[in-house]
Amino acid sequence: MSRLNQYSSDFTPHIWPIGGGKGGTGKSFLTSNMGILLARNGFKTLLIDADLGAPNLHTIVGLPNPTISLSDFLNKRVATLEETVLEMPVHNLFLISGARNKLDIANLAHEQKMKVLRAISRLDYDYILLDLGTGTSFNTIDFFTVWDSGIFVCNPEPTSIENIYRLIRSVYLRKIRQVLKIDRFRSLAEKAERQNRDAVVHHPEYLLEVLKTIDPEQGSKIERILKAFQFKLVLNQVRRQDNPKTGALICRIVEKHLGMKIQFIGNVSFDERVHEAVCKKESFVDQYCYSQATLDLKVVIKAITGMREEQAVAS
Amino acid sequence: MKRTEDLNYYELLEIAYDASPFEVHQAYKEMIQLYHDDSLASYSFFSKEEREGILAKLDEAYSALMDERKRSHYDQSLIELGILEKATQHQGDRTRVSLSYDAKRFAANTALRVRDRLKPIASSNPVIQEILANDVLSGNDLRKIRDELGISLEEIAEMVKVRIVYLHAIENDQFEKTPSRIFLKGFLRAYAQCMGLDADVVASRYLKRIHD
Question: pTM (2 decimals)?
Fold first, then answer.
């Protein structure tokens, strides 16, 4: 029996896209170190560098020159996505790199994107962590909406929080767009914009409100879908002077005003040695296994796997 | 999911219909932390107008639910609408001893928010700026400034906790009815601050006339 089955219910997602609205929030750092912690806990874990425009996960995990990457699958140089998987020095940890991706891969065509998403869904791993690119392009957002799960990462800074709200609202809007037919969505958007001119820019919740008045059944259906999202939020690079409740407050705002449930799963402390570990291409959780940031990451892992805290070990 | 403007006071504060004044106060404090202008978690989620609207509704809810008589009226209206059953209505609370303290804090919070709202209006209003350019200010000048800002003397009195007769006396230049100079200076400062004006400038220029 895989380690996953010991702790997880059928409803626990095992594919976790990890994204943030802004660069430099620490998505790749979190992805790589969470992957190492999961692998060390006996979970067969795959990291996928889905930051198509700026892949660098291979460098963070200490694999400077990967021989194969995601684009080899897209370009049909290999028949299956599984063939692009690289084994890592850490037992149970695997990587699909983006290092050899073509420079224009960020503008992935819809068909290619669907091909990747389907192939990822078929992979047999306990956990799959996807390191996503920044911003709110469809290529990023669709990774969140296809599995209805994901981890949002932001820093306790106004700019980062502003961008995470933008990303969350984009996911919200995209989900409504996916459920409705194109014509239906357009007419709904027009009606909602008449009620609030910012409906499609800042307030996608108005779309749902308008939809509920003109088609209560469809509106309730979308409301249920939005409520079923299994999203998490991690606040990274939290300093001593920061308000430790900020993450929980962000989730509360989103739930109250968008009706989307996001679970705050922890603050990860700022640690100057992260920079050092990245520069040395070393694993932070291995080098500084007793640091506060590593302990915080274990709490995050616990929330994702459903393990009890004492079961989450660093090595 | 209801819009903020459609929520009743209890839903807005996320409290039970029979919540005690202490629970109302705690919920209000939490909500202020969530929606205050300085809240890192919510500042970029709302526009200035939306935030002001939510804060105003929170203040409205707090003042209604903390006052036994107003709360009873409000509950009655919910009962008539079929939202609240008589059995779950709040029946008064013995812990009201802390209310005077709560009311003071509430007034102080409101005064801060009103000041923050009026300050940019005052600094960009040409009529107010012209009046403030004078070396000496009269009670009539202060009233004109207040009229420009659209705030009543009653509202100021409530927020700064100064008896309204003194504020009337200040605006009517009835120096015989104003308190001693030291108290008058304090009242003038509070009055000016509440309108987002420079308290020292207003107090010193008004008091010049009493010297003269």
Answer: 0.71
